[in-house]
Design brief:
Elements (H helix, E strand, L loop, with lengths): L6 E5 L1 H4 L15 E5 L3 E2 L1 H15 L5 E5 L5 E2 L1 H17 L2 E5 L2 H9 L2 E4 L2 E4 L5
Parallel strand pairs: 2-4, 3-5, 4-6
Antiparallel strand pairs: 1-2, 7-8
InterPro entries: MlaB-like_STAS (IPR058548), STAS_dom_sf (IPR036513)
Pfam families: STAS_2
Organism: Paracoccus tibetensis
Length: about 130
């Protein structure tokens, strides 16, 4: 059953950039998995978002992307999920990308984190 809190989209990286691409085969894993977040990502939704994010991550693509561009309301619980996803990608040797909304960027700033398309980090790490 697909969660109503987040949408999972799987498509080749080239298609995300606006280019067409061909599949390597009917059973080939997609080049990229994009996990799209809902407008509200607070502690109330955190358990379901975390569960859905883990399921998306285990889809097995070469790259994992979190699309937080629609997030309007958030707190530190979402930042924890994003950081855990980044660490899981690094440990698995997978690429990670993050699309931010102003609300997520502001939450990161308030938490002392630097936010960019490469993910979240301590502000001093990317100075």
């Amino acid at each position: 059953m697909q969660s109503q809190l987040a949408n999972l989209h799987q498509k080749p990286v080239a298609a995300e950039a606006g280019h067409s691409s061909e599949s390597a085969g009917a059973n080939a894993a997609p080049a990229s998995t994009t996990f799209a977040l809902p407008a509200r990502c607070t502690l109330v939704q955190a358990e379901a978002i975390h569960r859905d994010c883990r399921a998306a991550f285990h889809g097995g693509s070469a790259a994992f992307r979190i699309d937080a561009s629609a997030v309007e309301e958030t707190d530190v619980s979402l930042l924890q999920i994003i950081i855990a996803s980044q660490k899981s990608c690094r440990a698995a040797g997978r690429d990670f990308a993050l699309t931010l909304s102003p609300a997520v960027a502001e939450a990161a700033r308030r938490a002392g984190l630097r936010a960019d398309p490469g993910g979240l980090s301590a502000a001093a790490d990317r100075a």
